[in-house]
Structure formats: C-alpha cells, structure tokens
C-alpha cells in the first residue's frame, strides 16, 4: 500500500497532482452549483455570508485547471476552526491554514485526481480579492485571454511545481485585481 496523502513530500504531491489545463467547460458551473448546494447543507447552522465560484473555472472561455475554486466568507465573530472542523468531518482535506484563512480540498486521492476536484477557500468577510479579479476578467475578455496565454506558457514551464506556477501569476493577478477594486469599489 502506498503512502497517505498527508505523508507525501511536496515534490511527491506535485508528481501525483501536476498542473493540468483544459479548455473551458460549461459543466464547471454545474459542478460549482452542486458543491455549493452541498456546502449550504453542511453549513446551514452557521452564519455564512457568501459562497462564491472563483478561480479560472469561473472566468468565461479561458483554459483552466479543472478544479472548482469556492470562496466561503464568514463573519469575524465566528471561529474559523469551527467551520473547518465541519468540513474535515465531511471528507474535505486540509491544505493550509493561518489564523485568518483555511484552504481545503476534495477530490485528491492516493491515485491522483478524482473526476471532480474542489478547492475551498475559507475566509473572513472582506478577504475576497478573487471576486474582483473574476468579475474584471469576465467583463474584459481580452484581458482574460492575456491571462489564459500567461497560464498556458507557465503550464509548460511549471507542470510539476504548483508553487512556482502560482507565484509566476501573482504580478498579473495583483495588477488586474487592483484595477478591479478601483472600478467596482465596494461591490462585495
């Protein structure tokens, strides 16, 4: 029997879960809606502010990792660990955590990716730059295509290095998130 996911080194994880990009799929929205519905059932007793589809699968027409990113925003009065524990009890895996945010996933197995993969970004209200970035790229398809081109180039370079892939996108994301925040002000 192989190692558990929690026992793998970062390099082993990158080999098992390489960066994979695919053309935009319409069914990603349905996958999001199904998972959102499940999350609402799991967290119905909590004071969730908003659950949102973020990441490249939420941007129309661009290539993306076939992973549905979901942002869950909670009020500052709720202990974030309480929500985390509910999700852990329901087969989500902890990826990273700080005092203010927690990342979990679902769909990672000892054999690689499951058919449906989800990244859950659990945060306090207001830590939601991804919503602005998503909206801006959906409003400006030309900018979205620039982002797609960047991602496709980085994919070739960093297929087995998720951290480097993410870091190399940071400048682009920061630039357009800042423009979006100025344009949309306090939309969220």
Automatic annotation (TrEMBL):
- Which SUPFAM superfamilies is this protein grouped with? Nucleotidyltransferase (SSF81301)
Q: What InterPro entries does the database record attribute to this sequence?
A: GrpB/CoaE, NT_sf
The signal peptide, as residue positions, is none
Question: Looking at the record's lineage, which domain of life comes first?
Answer: Bacteria
Q: Which Gene3D superfamilies match?
A: Beta Polymerase, domain 2
> What's the protein called, per UniProt?
GrpB family protein
Q: Which organism is it from?
A: Fusobacterium polymorphum ATCC 10953
């Amino acid at each position: 029997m192989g190692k558990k996911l929690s026992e793998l080194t970062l390099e082993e994880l990158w080999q098992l879960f390489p960066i994979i990009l695919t053309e935009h799929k319409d069914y990603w929205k349905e996958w999001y809606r199904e998972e959102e519905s499940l999350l609402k059932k799991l967290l119905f007793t909590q004071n969730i502010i908003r659950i949102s589809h973020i990441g490249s699968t939420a941007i129309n027409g661009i290539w993306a990792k076939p992973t549905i990113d979901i942002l869950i925003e909670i009020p500052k009065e709720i202990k974030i660990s309480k929500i985390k524990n509910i999700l852990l009890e329901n087969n989500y895996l902890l990826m990273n955590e700080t005092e203010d945010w927690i990342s979990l996933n679902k769909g990672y197995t000892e054999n690689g990716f499951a058919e449906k993969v989800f990244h859950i970004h659990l945060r306090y209200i207001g830590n939601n730059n991804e919503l602005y970035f998503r909206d801006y790229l959906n409003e400006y398809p030309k900018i979205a295509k620039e982002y797609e081109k960047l991602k496709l180039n980085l994919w070739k370079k960093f297929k087995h290095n998720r951290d480097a892939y993410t870091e190399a996108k940071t400048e682009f994301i920061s630039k357009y998130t800042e423009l979006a925040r100025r344009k949309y002000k306090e939309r969220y």
